[in-house]
Amino acid sequence: MILMKDVHKTYPNGVTALNGINVEIEQGEFVYIVGPSGAGKSTFIRLMYREAKATNGTIMINDLDMSSLKEKKVPFLRRDIGVVFQDFKLLPKLSVYENIAFALEVIEESPRNIRKLVMDVLELVGLKNKARFIPDELSGGEQQRVSIARAIVNKPKIVIADEPTGNLDPETSWEIMKILEEINSSGTTIIMATHSKEIVNTIKKRVIAIEDGLIVRDEHRGEYGYEI
Amino acid sequence: MKFRTVRRHLREGFKNIARNGWMTVASVGAVTTTLILVGAFLALMLNLNQMADNIEEDVEINALLELTLEEDQITTIGDEIKQINGVDSVVFSSKDEQLSELVDSMGEEGKSWQLFEQDNPLNHVYIIKTKDPQDTIKVADKISDLQGVQEVNYGQGVVERLFEFNKYARTIGVVLIVGLVFTAIFLISNTIKITIMARSREIGIMKLVGATNGFIRWPFFIEGLLLGILGSVVPIAAILGGYYYLENNISERINYSFVELLPFNPFAWQLSLIILGIGALIGVWGSVMSVRKFLKV
Fold first, then answer.
1. B212 contact A CB<8A
2. Burial A177-211 (b: 16+ CB within 10 A, else e)
3. Fewest CB within 10 A of the end CB: N or C in chain B?
């Protein structure tokens, strides 16, 4: 489902972020990406939804070849991938409802379906009573749940989360993880970059460790492996 | 694009006007100020242009015919003149008509000229108007070459300078208007750009959620259109009101034949339409061009 072969990424300023990544992730897996800051985790993740482009190597996402994917087709790739960001990236002037509905308006869903799908997903993340609030009126955990709701509302095959619990207190982090596990249990691939030792060591999943632009460890039911 | 998406873009465009509050006010303000300037200047220039036209249209060529000509020769010359390129109308004026005109124009003193009625020393005259007043000199030269034409008068010397002056005045007017419109475009699109720059992050987010460039651009298109239209409301009101006042209070007091304001209807309405058009165009242009920069995510 996700396949990377000998992927290199050098930024225009000369910084080499990835130095030959080889990895295969099957549909339905739950994968943690761990490693020190600046090791290439974020770049690795951003390659998958094409916010960054690989300098060298092959990346296949949902049978699409990233290197030959035309700029015009990028939005369509992103509709099959839900992305959850550390800083939530919600539209500040839109309500919770409108933020989630946006992902459906983009695919030209009918208004009736939009209503139903948004309310369903709000139910799932437990924010049904806050549909009319704007992001600023919510706590960090609530905003992250909106962000997750937006990422999964159009039933993508893959959900990518870049440190989704990075800005949240431990208790809220567990709530977020519960939601992600629930999504995963319905067959969605989840790829999550994280710095949280507790989460990785408690909810045991496949762990991929990246250091200096290379995968140094890839184990199923792995450990976090770093001291904080 | 499905119809529901069209509706969605329209709705979002309208909502953005409200969502952006003071930014909207700033943009509309910029459009309003510049359009008032453009409108006032356009009104002035178009009226001056009209006055210049009026003066030029008063220019006519008098072709004085030789005294010895027979009637059929006179007719032939008239036909020849009509053949000349650029001639609009040819009117024959006999020497008797010329005399009575002269007498009339002299007023009291003219009475003494009436004595000439028995032995009229004047020439028969063809009075020629050209289609384009600028052709006067060219046409006059051709007429003077005709057999049987003694002399042509069109206000030699004065007319050349008048045309020269009008030509420069018009060129300067066009340059000023174009300059002003460009300044307006620059000012307005810059203001709009600032309001959109504040939303560059939002545009980036939309792209990450899977919106195509077109999907993001349409509401901005609508928003820019609305900004332009809203911004032209006050200038149009000012033009209609101000012009109505001018026409009813000022123009009656000026009594030179060529100083005549263009009539309120349709001129003020046409001008309003132009202002609305410029406003809408600049609004859309400023908005769409500004978004373009932030779409590369």
1. yes
2. bebbeebbeeebbbbbbbbbeebbeeeebbbbbbb
3. N
Measured between beta carbons, which residues in chain B are less than 8 angstroms from residue A79? 210
Q: How far is CA B219 from the centre of its chain?
A: 35
In this structure, which topology does domain B60-154 adopt according to CATH?
Alpha-Beta Plaits (3.30.70)
CB contact under 8 A, A72 and B215: no
- For residue range B44-59, list pLDDT tens digits in order: 888 888 888 877 777 8
Long-range CB pairs of B8-16, under 8 A, 24+ apart, other chains included:
B8/A105, B9/B215, B9/B218, B9/B219, B9/B221, B9/B222, B10/B222, B12/B218, B12/B219, B12/B222, B13/B218, B13/B219, B13/B220, B13/B221, B13/B222, B13/B223, B13/B225, B13/B226, B14/B222, B14/B226, B16/B219, B16/B220, B16/B223
Q: Using the beta-carbon criterion (under 8 Å), do B205 and A91 form an inter-chain contact?
A: yes
Mean pLDDT of A162-178: 88
Residue B211 to residue A111, Cβ atoms within 8 A: no
Chain A partners of B212 at a C-beta cutoff of 8 Å? 72, 75, 106
CA B92 to each of CA A14, A159, B260: distance values in angstroms, whole numbers, following the listed order: 89, 92, 29
Inter-chain residue contact B208 with A150, CB threshold 8 Å: no
Structure tokens at B179: 């300059």
Domain boundaries, chain B: 3-55+161-295, 60-154
**Least confident stretch, A133-137, A185-189, B124-128, B232-236:** B124-128
Contact between chains at B210 and A90 (C-beta distance less than 8 A): no
Name which of B4, B8, B208 is nearest A51 (Cβ-Cβ): B208
Interface test with A, best of B5, B9, B209 (most A CBs within 10 A): B209
Report the half-sphere exposure of A80 (CA within 13 A, side-chain side): 14
Amino acid letter for position B219: P
Cβ-contact B146, B77 below 8 angstroms: yes
Please give the ipTM for the structure prediction.
Answer: 0.88
